[in-house]
Amino acid sequence: MTKKEKKELRDKKREARKIQKQLHAEMQAAVDVVVERTCKEEGTENLSGYAAVASANSPELEKKIKKWLKKTGAKPVRIIRGPKTKDSNAPEEDVLLELRNLQKYFVVGKNLFGKPTAYLKAVDNVSFSLKKGKTLGIVGESGCGKTTMGRTILRLHEPTGGEVWFNGEEVSKIPETEFDKLRPNMQMIFQDPYASLSPRLTVGTIIGEAALEHGLVTKENYREYVLDVMKMCGLQPHYFDRYPHEFSGGQRQRICIARALALKPQLVVCDEPVSALDVSIQAQIINMLRDLQKDLGLTYVFISHDLSVVKHISDEVGVMYLGSMVEFGTKERIFNNTLHPYTQALFSAVPVPDPHMKMNRVILKGDIPSPVNPPKGCKFHTRCDKCMEICKKVTPKYREVEPDHYCACHLYDTPEELQEFAAAQAAEAMLNAKKDKKEKKAKKAKKSKK
Fold this sequence. Notes:
By secondary structure, the chain is of the alpha/beta class. The protein has helices at residues 3-29, 59-72, 146-153, 176-182, 203-213, 222-232, 249-261, 279-296, 307-313, 331-336, 341-348, 415-449, and strands at residues 53-54, 80-81, 95-110, 116-131, 135-139, 161-166, 169-170, 186-189, 267-271, 299-303, 316-321, 324-330, 398-402, 405-408. It has an eight-stranded mixed β-sheet with strand order 8-9-10-5-11-12-14-13, sandwiched between helices. Helix 5 (203-213) packs across helix 6 (222-232) and helix 5 (203-213) packs parallel to helix 7. The N and C termini lie far apart (90 Å).
């Protein structure tokens, strides 16, 4: 290296140290100062008054800034994400929740070395989207995966595969620490109001504890805030210091609803919130949920067995069978033009309050197959009275049969798809015939040798 090159290198190092000192001084002065500014690919336009700004689509830059802060010993500052660029895979703006091939498998068998050998497919490739301020009703038989799907959306169960998009952001794979910041926006009302409330805590603590933990309310305003939430859910102020065992089932469910709404969520997963209550109390809770939705702009995923309740509260309906979504659409299309044979059987079981009206009851034969070992092809073909040969061998595609009405059934396959299957069957039959001929020839050759 020549003297000239050495001198240039020394000058560059000196300049770099000077810039670093200047940056350090500016960062020290900018503690807790928030400056909203868009970042370029490698940095910002101007570093003066800079508080550590990172672009939403540049996590690498954010890591560099955190590393630099640690190295230089600068006081911690908030890292503000710049304007988020539109992701080509992101859902539409008015869509709050979208599932894409969501899966949740539980390990039920392992070999000698601890490697999983068998899975229970509780949620298997479920996809749908839910717009802001709407209610999605999820129905199906017991054990079909409704509750597991709701818990997996909130990551109470970690998803095995697929994607969960919430408010335009993919949240199923982000670190737990980042997801914890989103938890106030996604809440759940559990099925059993007796088991989901701690018997050792008062009503006020149950409702307000999480709000205090997430910084939504100060200690000074804590009691007033909780009383406002209680009033909104039809709970009297003197319930604040009482314990759950002092209340009826309907009052306990109101406490569960108040606990969820205390965090000001955007999405509420209601897991059969009225199944343990009598009819009169059910009506009160359902009407209260609808009023709260209008007042607060809530979005519901409403899981239930009661189709009349689902029809009353829902804007869209999804039907699940053995972990899969078999039919999905608007309430009007699902109830007026049922497509899937399973949905038809499910709806035929709903009693009609008219003794003179005859129901065309569809009675399903057999039991639900095991989710550990589901049947090949369509999972419903073992109980379907419209079963075809293709149903036993090929899994039906989940497709849009009519506008905003999706169904997974071979009854709505195109003629081209049916012809393709018939050709594949003919080819398979020819191969089997050739194999049989070869086996017969081999047997004859063995006999002649003997």
